[in-house]
Amino acid sequence: MFSRRDVLNGMMVTGAGLLANPMFELASPGQALAQAAATLTYGAHPDVSPMVLAGRDWTSKYGLNIKWEWFPSAGPADKALVEGSIDFDAPGGGRAVSLQAATKPGEFPMFMGWAYGDYAATLARHDSPAKSIQDLKGKKIGTVVGSGSYMAWLIWLDSQGMSVNDFQVVNMQGGEVAGALASGAIDGATIWEPYPALMEHRKIGKIVALFANVVYDAVVIQTRREVIEKKRDALVRFAAAAMDVQEWIKANPTETAKLVAKGMTERGAGDTPWEAFDAMIRRLIFAPDLDPVLPSLNKIADVSVKLGVIRNRPDLVVNRDILADAKKLRTKA
């Protein structure tokens, strides 16, 4: 088992809450709304749901302020979570599995999901003759090693009788992938949305493989045990607001695409028409409950051990009472 220092100094590149505990009691929904505003620090990276959350005021109705800390990908955000400089983040499922494998059971639990489905893809250059991932064997594939999309790729490759050893893997940050593919520095890319949608729209890349038929690349929300102990009520308020976001996305895909386009521009991805993200929004599943994605997370854990990516197969810890209380709070808001 690794200490917190071990995780900070050498966290495995591969990357959910405490089991219900009666000592962590929630004020009634009415009391929660009447209390003074709470503050949580969200360690976010360019992704669909946080851009929608940041694009409008979703939390004041629940008496919650969000302090934003933006990172290029979930890996640096995870390190900030371990350090204690943020209260929660939302990595891909593979990274959440790896964090639980590298730390004490229950130290970094998941408590809800943001989205899942065809969230990750492998792309070839737009002008490449490649029509499938097999055509990219031996080629340079840019990816964020350890990300949820990378882990989903590993599982998908294993199901096809392939492995990352069939490719030249180039580790980079998510925001660097499009430029590298456009310049020819890499021949393909494995990355999470909204980057594939952006690259297809700009005719930088074309999708040659999606993974959801084998494994979901789910975006999950995780926190630290001590945040639950000290700020549980604030986490409940956040989860209620996050469910509002998810329902709004499902009902307003076009407006969602516009917020994502705005957010990507603000994050330095360049000006991209909202139409680039419309189809992507419609094929993702935005839902808070983790049960639909737990089979994929367990598959990631099993195959990660098989491939030697993680040493310890974690028993995944999910805090279910935060989400349950958030659902009650929404009925009173």
Care to describe what's here?
The protein is an alpha/beta fold and 333 residues long. The protein folds into two domains: 4-117 and 217-332, 3-Layer(aba) Sandwich (D-Maltodextrin-Binding Protein, domain 2), CATH 3.40.190.10; 120-210, D-Maltodextrin-Binding Protein, domain 2 (3-Layer(aba) Sandwich), CATH 3.40.190. 43% of the residues lie in helices and 17% in strands. It has helices at residues 4-10, 29-34, 48-55, 74-83, 93-101, 148-159, 174-183, 195-201, 225-251, 253-266, 275-283, 294-306, 321-332; strands spanning 38-44, 64-70, 88-89, 110-117, 120-125, 140-143, 168-171, 188-192, 205-210, 219-223, 284-285. The strands form two sheets. It has a six-stranded mixed β-sheet. A five-stranded mixed β-sheet has the order 7-6-8-5-9, sandwiched between helices. α5 packs across α12 (294-306).
Keywords:
single chain; 333 residues; alpha/beta; D-Maltodextrin-Binding Protein, domain 2; 2 domains; 6-stranded mixed beta sheet; 11 strands
**Number of β-strand runs:** 11
The CATH superfamily of the largest domain appears as Periplasmic binding protein-like II
Strand content: 15-25%
Structural class: alpha/beta
| Average pLDDT number | 88
Radius of gyration: 19 Å
What is the string of SSEs from the N terminus onward? HHEHEHEHEEEHEHEHEEHHHEHH
Largest sheet: 6 strands, mixed
Number of helices: 13
Shape: globular
Do you know the CATH topology of the largest domain? Answer: D-Maltodextrin-Binding Protein, domain 2
Poorly predicted runs: 4-34
End-to-end Cα distance, whole Å, is: 42 Å
How many domains? The number is: 2
What is the helix content?
A: 40-55%
CATH 2nd-level architecture of the largest domain: 3-Layer(aba) Sandwich
> What is the strand arrangement across the widest sheet?
2-1-3-10-4-11
The CATH class label of the largest domain is: Alpha Beta
